[in-house]
Design brief:
Number of domains: 1
Number of strands: 5
Structural class: alpha+beta
Largest sheet: 5 strands, mixed
Order of helices and strands: EEHEHHEE
Number of helices: 3
Strand order of the largest sheet: 2-4-5-1-3
Shape: elongated
Distance between the termini: 10 Å
Length: about 110
């Protein structure tokens, strides 16, 4: 097992376009991920406002340029050991879309670091 894993998290508006959707309870989510979802919410709202102000556009479809920079979450080995193994296995296979607090988030596993 690596020393840590790095996840990239984006809040997305249209989860159907991005893959498998998992509805999770807060107990199933990595604890530090909950805080990062709030940061992803803030980044998404700021990014949409910036596009609106700079280009006069409302985002109706999601493309790479309409997504903000991802929020980065490094998960330590200790936290990995406490994490829902089913969630980790799915993340290793492919990016996930999770639904939490009626919002969707795309989560991508970056190559192991360390």
């Amino acid at each position: 097992m690596p020393e840590k894993l790095r996840l990239k998290i984006w809040r997305i508006e249209n989860e159907e376009e991005f893959g498998e959707l998992l509805n999770l309870e807060s107990s199933q989510i990595i604890s530090s991920m909950l805080e990062k979802t709030l940061e992803a919410d803030r980044k998404m709202e700021e990014h949409k406002m910036k596009i609106r102000e700079n280009y006069g556009l409302e985002i109706t479809e999601e493309y790479v340029w309409t997504l903000p920079e991802p929020v980065i979450l490094d998960i330590s080995r200790e936290e990995l050991e406490k994490t829902n193994q089913n969630l980790l296995e799915k993340l290793i296979e492919k990016p996930l879309i999770i639904k939490y607090n009626n919002k969707a988030y795309k989560i991508v596993l970056e190559y192991p670091c360390g």
